């Protein structure tokens, strides 16, 4: 027995073992008709605008890839937006062996600074945001207001006071001089506070308390899993900011073996711009810059699955 239900899709109701089953029809035909329907002028304008934006953002990367394949002479004698003699392998070998392979040491330093800072800042921001969102305690409004105010302060304005503070503590020219300031992320706390307010249902917390679970265990076993997508977002923001940080390491560090890639490549660039025999470093600096962005690309490709998997890993049954 089949009855038609009036409507746009006109699905059929099929009786199966006494239970009606709703079957949708003509979905593929409607999808094909939608694709054949001519686009509005506004849709074409938006498409062209988006393509221009994509080209604008990808153009520097394209130039970097092209320039990394050229020798130092070809950089100045060939067309800048197209390939010449392919010297990418030789350029990479030069980058990795120049000055006894100091580039590798700088890369390891950048990985240490970025990973430790990103993981620590993500955890602290997640815990703080969860606390502001789910607990009421004396001074919570004032503390959160101070956090919002800290977002408005430029990081460059805090670099010199931070240096003076770390100099008094004897922490300059150490790894902690870069890691500790990077752990404080006011924007991350704000982001996680907003995210935790909706991602973690109060009923889950109350259910845990009824079962006798402590607050720390509720956070680590229930809330932290639901906050994972937002936490990964803060991790990526901090990872990119620390990896690209230049001014703070320049002030805090004196030893070349503790430099990150940003400061080390800037030194090579300054030497190349100074003239003399160091002009051959231009191709080395460009190739080193290409190698320096590869870890960030890998990190984005690896962590994007946490966004695609959804904004929550659980829910509340009603």
Give a verbal description of the structure.
Helix content is 69%, strand content 4%. The two termini are 34 Å apart. It is mostly helical. A hairpin with a 7-residue loop joins strand 1 and strand 2. Strands 1-2-3 form a three-stranded antiparallel β-sheet, with no helix packed on it. It is globular and about 75 Å long. The chain has helices at residues 27-36, 41-68, 72-77, 88-97, 102-134, 140-151, 155-169, 176-183, 186-199, 202-210, 215-226, 228-243, 247-252, 261-273, 281-303, 305-308, and strands at 2-4, 12-16, 19-23.
Strand count, sense and barrel status of the largest sheet are:
3 strands, antiparallel
In which order are the strands of the major sheet placed? Answer: 1-2-3
Terminal residue distance: 34 Å
CATH architecture of the largest domain, by name, is Orthogonal Bundle
For this structure, the CATH topology of the largest domain is: MetI-like fold
- Count of helix runs: 16
Beta-strand content? under 5%
* Tally of distinct domains: 3
How many beta-strand runs?
A: 3
Supply the helix-strand structural class: mainly alpha
Query: Unreliable runs, pLDDT <50, ≥5 residues?
Result: 1-25, 310-318
